[in-house]
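Researcher: Here's a chain I'd like modeled. Treat it as a single chain, no partners, no ligands.
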Amino acid sequence: MTTLTLSDAHGLVVAAMSEAGHTPDEASVIADHLLDCELRGLTFGGLARALSIVERIRAAAEAPRPIRVTAETPVSATVDGGDQVGYLVGMRALELAVAKTRAQGMAVVGARNTWYTGMFSYYLEKAAAAGLAGMIAGSGPAVVAPHGGTEGRFGTNPIAFGFPATPAPVIWDIGTSAVMYGEVVLKARLGEQLEAGQAYDAAGAPTLDPAAALDGAFGVWGGHKGSGLAMVVQLLGMMSGASAAPPGISDCGFFVLLVDPAALTDADDYRRRVSEYAESIRATRPVAGGSAVRVPFDRSFACREEALRRGTVEVPDPVVAALRKIAHEWSPRA
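Model: Modeled as a single isolated chain. Structure tokens:
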């Protein structure tokens, strides 16, 4: 592992994103998101994802187009991402949703024609900071097999819910696959194996080989219940106009629903009650020999606070070396 200061890690991603054709502002938006993943211990969604972004952009047959709103009402909007990376499209969708929710009390925004939208809790933490509750669901290419099957029909299909609270929001953010796409790609880069039961090869046989899993299918999370949830997420993403089974890494659906608690109740009182309820869950008597009960986002929040105090992140050596090579290619033109 390579130890990087936070500023060095951020700068490395900015340089790589600039090499991939992004403006300084765009590169910084992406770097902020990826660094937050690193700070919260989500390594596969951190600096390693920057490599996947560069690879995807270089492999594209056409240059991306501007992000544009194709339909709009006071409480809704549909966004065409123009095949731009999802970290940019997701932020545009969130900004639209926040503005409309502040004006109307609630809003729904869908985005399509994008890819790699990242960590949904990143967006919902921003919404919660604005005093809003919400849900985000995202569909994608058919890489996850439904319960009882061995062929891809779902995306990894994350879904997240967020609620304003003190000192940190309550955010539940999960993928509905047994293993996330970024995890499989990173393990393939590092020459590591998957865990048993996570994936199938192209012939439908269980596999530990990440390369074989990328040619086959990942397992679904949560048995038949998780499979049902994965299908629902796919359908929500499709409401943006996204394809049910887009080719390659493309046309992911991004569905954002935000609500201002003030539309239904006293917003300050709601935040207080959410906070108190979360504390009551943390105060639950743990099982014998177990650790303290946590609320969703507790581990992530604590991990980030510790990383910020430390001022560094640990990144796999091959990832840092590859990013430095990309950044060096960009550096002479800076």
